Amino acid sequence: MDDITNTDGIPLYVRIRESLREKITSGELERGQKLPSEDDLAAQYGVSRMTVRQGTSDLIDDGLLYRRHGVGTFVTLPHIERDHSQLTDFFENSTLHGINARATILEIKVLPATPKIAQRLLLKTNDSLINIKTLRQADEILVTLHDSYIPHKLFSEFIQGEILTFEVQHLWSKFAEKGYPVKWATQKLEARLADPNLAELMQVNPGSPILFKERTVYAEDGTPVEFTYCYNRGDMYSLTVTLNR
Known about the structure:
Elements lengths: L11 H15 L11 H8 L3 H13 L3 E4 L3 E4 L4 E4 L6 H7 L4 E12 L2 H6 L7 E11 L2 E11 H4 L3 E2 L2 E2 L6 H7 L4 E12 L2 H7 L6 E11 L4 E10 L3 E4 L5
Parallel strand pairs: 3-12
Antiparallel strand pairs: 1-2, 4-5, 5-6, 6-11, 7-8, 9-10, 10-11
């Protein structure tokens, strides 16, 4: 039994709350992990179910736990908060929020530009593109499928065969080294549901919410250097935009 003996006037539900908070912050309770049932927690702490519920409700309000009706209470997953008033990439944004980010390359290939992507990158249809497809993780949890297209004629040395010549998180730095520092972007966001193929890749259930994004990135001189499709887990992303009037 966890020792939460009330010897200094602190209510039992507060002691339970802080005990669970410590287990979450220390990693003893992992992100996404399901908590024991309220009956089991009540037995573990030697209190009533109502006291347990009061303690866990505070942690839900704090964003550390969430309930799924009929399923149970879970530790929240790492949350990616994107300020779309500023242009940052996935890795820069994760660093700003203390999130450990990494990417796994699924595929690198050269392919002809479709009419849509050619238009976005100011190319001709069937011009060569470098396609870099990655799965991206935040604190070891898959959060994004990133499907990027860049003009082969500008950045052909970025790949050797089907191998990227640098780590993918340095892509924008490599643009700058080639004389195309990233300056601005246009993007479209929409809500979607994960189809079976995407759900399998991202390890979510089919029909799970997806925040879909199309983005065209431009260099300082106005040259479009990257067009991207991003599929972000809807339960792990939030957006902030500054609006002026």
